[in-house]
């Protein structure tokens, strides 16, 4: 990353400019210092106590990041919506895990991204900003290095990163729009399932009914928070589980995965600060599920 120092920042310590103006975390600065990165001013390495002058060119070179044992390139189909040197936006297919694990050691989105980077001769790594469940489809944001990930995480915490979903839920919702505000925590004796718990983390889900059919509702959802399984748990808790969501009591007769799709994503670019907006269509399996539900009435 490179920045030209403006008049208003003249006289600042390099450390303060990097931390306060550009939002580089203390953790990243530590990695630059001890893991092989560089901080340059006008192409000369400088300490963080350098006093900046108007017109100085500041450049940060991040160290190469170590990858976990499962983080190896693998051929996985990727639908790339947008890509530059800092971020990548994908339209994720259902049925594919995002990160490798003991249960899914290969064939994940991360493995596919590493293969994609390898083909580009790029040293980029995989930092998931907006993670989706294995069987949830739609838009997903990935940072290509730790700095963009740090900035996007800050944007997410500030509510500047917005995601909208489409879902098919069981039953007709009594209100055309509403908010579910109920804390979510891990269910006892389960490493996967979540539930509404008084001691859980605050979780807020806003929804609007787009189509109310007999026996089901097609809704759009916007998250205010981003808890694991939030949409699935919230709708199940009010008696309207997502179709296909067997974990939380959903009907699996017309679709065999949770009928949930992230169709819209808006966020400020971590470097340029330009607001980016993306949207994708409803996937075929959810379109077919709606058709089946409509014709079965």
From TrEMBL:
Domain Pseudouridine synthase RsuA/RluA-like: 86-237
Biological process per Gene Ontology, one example term: enzyme-directed rRNA pseudouridine synthesis
Enzyme class, spelled out: isomerase
Entry's Gene Ontology molecular function annotations: catalytic activity, acting on RNA; pseudouridine synthase activity; RNA binding
Family matches, as CDD domains: PseudoU_synth_RluA_like (cd02869)
Active-site residues annotated for this sequence: 133
The protein's Enzyme Commission number: 5.4.99.-
Assigned keywords, A-Z: Isomerase, RNA-binding
Statement: the UniProt record of this protein carries the keyword Isomerase: yes
Catalytic activity: a uridine in RNA = a pseudouridine in RNA
Annotated Pfam families: PseudoU_synth_2
Role according to the record: Responsible for synthesis of pseudouridine from uracil.
Family: Belongs to the pseudouridine synthase RluA family.
Full protein name: Pseudouridine synthase
Native organism taxonomy: Bacteria, Bacillati, Bacillota, Bacilli, Bacillales
């Amino acid at each position: 990353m490179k920045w030209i120092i403006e008049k208003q920042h003249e006289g600042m310590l390099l450390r303060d400019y990097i931390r306060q103006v550009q939002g580089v975390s203390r953790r990243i600065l530590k990695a630059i210092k001890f893991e092989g990165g560089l901080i340059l001013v006008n192409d000369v390495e400088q300490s963080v106590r350098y006093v900046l002058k108007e017109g100085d060119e500041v450049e940060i070179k991040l160290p190469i990041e170590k990858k976990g044992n499962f983080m190896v390139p693998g051929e996985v189909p990727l639908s790339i919506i947008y890509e530059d040197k800092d971020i990548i936006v994908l339209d994720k297919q259902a049925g594919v895990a995002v990160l490798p694990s003991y249960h899914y050691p290969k064939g994940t989105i991360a493995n596919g991204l590493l293969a994609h980077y390898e083909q580009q001769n790029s040293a980029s790594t995989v930092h998931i900003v907006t993670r989706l469940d294995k069987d949830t489809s739609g838009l997903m944001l990935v940072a290509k290095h730790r700095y963009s990930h740090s900035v996007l995480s800050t944007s997410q915490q500030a509510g500047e990163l917005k995601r909208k979903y489409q879902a098919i839920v069981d039953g007709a919702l009594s209100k055309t729009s509403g908010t579910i505000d109920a804390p979510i925590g891990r269910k006892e004796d389960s490493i996967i399932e979540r539930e509404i718990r008084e001691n859980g983390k605050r979780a807020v889900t806003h929804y609007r009914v787009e189509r109310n059919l007999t026996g089901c509702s097609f809704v759009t959802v916007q998250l205010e928070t981003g808890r694991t399984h939030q949409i699935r748990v919230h709708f199940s808790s009010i008696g309207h589980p997502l179709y296909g969501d067997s974990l939380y009591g959903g009907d699996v007769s017309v679709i065999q995965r949770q009928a949930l799709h992230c169709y819209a994503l808006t966020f400020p670019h971590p470097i340029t600060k330009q607001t980016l907006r993306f949207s994708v269509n409803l996937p075929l399996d959810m379109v077919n599920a709606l058709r089946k539900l409509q014709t079965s009435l």
